[in-house]
Amino acid sequence: MPESAVPLRELLAALGGPVGDGPIRVAAAAGGLEAAVRHVSILDPEEEPHVMPGDLLLAVGLRGRAAAGTVRAAGAAGATAIAVKGESAALREVADAAGVVLLSVRPEARWEQVAALAHAALDERPDAEPPDGGDLFSLAQTTAMLTGGGVSIEDSANRVLAYSRATGPDEADELRRLSILGWQGPEEYMARLRDWGVFHRLRTTTQVVAVEERPDLGIRRRLAVGVHAGGRWLGTIWVQEGRRPLADRAEEVLVGAARVATLHLVRRRARSAAEAGPTRESVAGLLGGSIAARAAAAQLGLDPVRPVLVLGFAVRADVPDESAQELARTELANLVSVYAAARHSHARVAPLGPRVYVLLSAPPTETVALGWAHEIAAAAHGHLDLVVRGAVGDPAPSLARTVAARESADRVLDAMATGGVSAEVAALSQVRPQVLHGEVQALLAEHREIRDPRLIALRAHDGEHDTEYADSVLAWLDALGDVRAAAAALHIHPNTLRYRIRRAGELTGLDWADPKTRLLAALLLRLPG
């Protein structure tokens, strides 16, 4: 039997295990349950079915007698089984005659739930992943194996995102059975957990929380841990004890599983945000230069010949935690979208790389845009507890120059990141000298051939003899040759400064009377090393 194929009997155990009697049962199996299932296919009632030998077919949208023709076709093509809702005695007879196993799906069960379990049992990637699940099913199964319990992963609204298969009958208690069948914790039980303080502890700590057995409520003992990123509670991993006690290191395993789940849940939020705004992909393409201006204008409803302005925002990454940073960018993008839409009818927002941008067509004045940037940065701090830098770039004459407008905002954010600009929010026009200076310094730092060896030797002399000639020359140049002002800044006597400048000239042979020499010294003496 191929590695990706399993006997139908084994697959049905996986389908039924996690929820007691399961979301699916056998309605007719004249040929037995030993035939192999090699693939899971979802049948679209609007399309001609494409059936392969060994298929398990999920007849979504077909009920009762309406499924009879599809059941016959499945049997003729060699399918192993077909699952339907609303089976009947007549349909069972059709299935027996066609030589295909008929499976009945419970009315309250969701098709994506059945598909996810079947794909997991076959250890294959689904044609269409279960909503917001992905590798979380694999994580749930691995955690279940290591803890010896039944695992479910939920978001912060107690919606079930993924869960493990059970290892035997009667392993699931009433709470787990109802949660998985409904893909959400039943409110009656959730209210009790809130009353017991369970959710408060899950929200506010990263420690494992134990919920003791309550036979009167049909609840077995379970452990839970909150999934957190950047101080935010994203969801919970639950481990329910079955007929045997949990493994000795179950709590340690659960903590590790929460850390692995963090990035999955962060990216799930990011996907949801991206799907909520279908224009974001077009905006990002326009900002990045991968979509032509006229094509983007048609998609976004913008006038391609009107001026544009780009505002850029970046979360100050004080903690190098990938999941926390990704969550912060997602939440920032959502916040910026709301504020921008409230201020400007033609505002378009999209994240691009680590930053979030606002594209304004027919923009307001720079002063107004700068005020908006301040508001957004303040809101991010007040509502999301994020320190955000904001930049307003130079306006561009048309949509075709969007990339240049975005790059001008990036220049400000880059300067802020390196300390060249101390303000948290600024327009390029306000800080252009600082930005240009930082860019020139970066260019010189990249090209070591653009150095004067005499200045390098001066720095080396200071290091070897504990002198301060280089810094004294730089202070004098910054003061435009005003010896008294430079000496005061260095807290030395003016005559001491005059001596140092003269001595620096003697050691290097540099002529301080030459303006080009002074310009190069002012630039090069600022470079590290």
Describe how the helices and strands are arranged.
Elements: E1 6-7, H1 8-16, E2 24-28, E3 36-37, E4 39-43, E5 55-63, H2 68-77, E6 81-85, H3 89-98, E7 101-105, H4 111-122, H5 136-147, E8 150-155, E9 160-163, H6 174-182, H7 187-195, H8 198-204, E10 209-211, E11 222-229, E12 232-240, H9 250-276, H10 280-288, H11 293-300, E13 308-315, H12 322-343, E14 347-352, E15 355-361, H13 366-384, E16 388-392, H14 402-418, E17 425-427, H15 428-446, H16 453-465, H17 469-478, H18 483-490, H19 494-508, H20 515-524
Parallel strand pairs: 4-5, 5-6, 6-7, 16-17
Antiparallel strand pairs: 1-3, 2-7, 8-9, 8-12, 10-11, 11-12, 13-15, 13-16, 14-15
What does this structure look like?
This protein has 529 residues and is α+β, with helices and mostly antiparallel strands. The protein has 20 helices and 17 strands. It has four domains: 6-122, HprK N-terminal domain-like (Udp-n-acetylmuramoylalanyl-d-glutamate--2,6- Diaminopimelate Ligase, Chain: A, domain 1, 3-Layer(aba) Sandwich), CATH 3.40.1390; 136-272, Beta-Lactamase; 278-430, 2-Layer Sandwich (Alpha-Beta Plaits), CATH 3.30.70.270; 453-524, PucR C-terminal helix-turn-helix domain (Arc Repressor Mutant, subunit A, Orthogonal Bundle). Helices cover 48% and strands 17% of the residues. The chain has a five-stranded mixed beta sheet with strand order 2-7-6-5-4, sandwiched between helices. The chain has a five-stranded antiparallel beta sheet with strand order 9-8-12-11-10, with helices on both faces. Helix 10 (280-288) runs antiparallel to helix 11 (293-300), helix 12 crosses helix 13 (366-384) and helix 17 crosses helix 18.
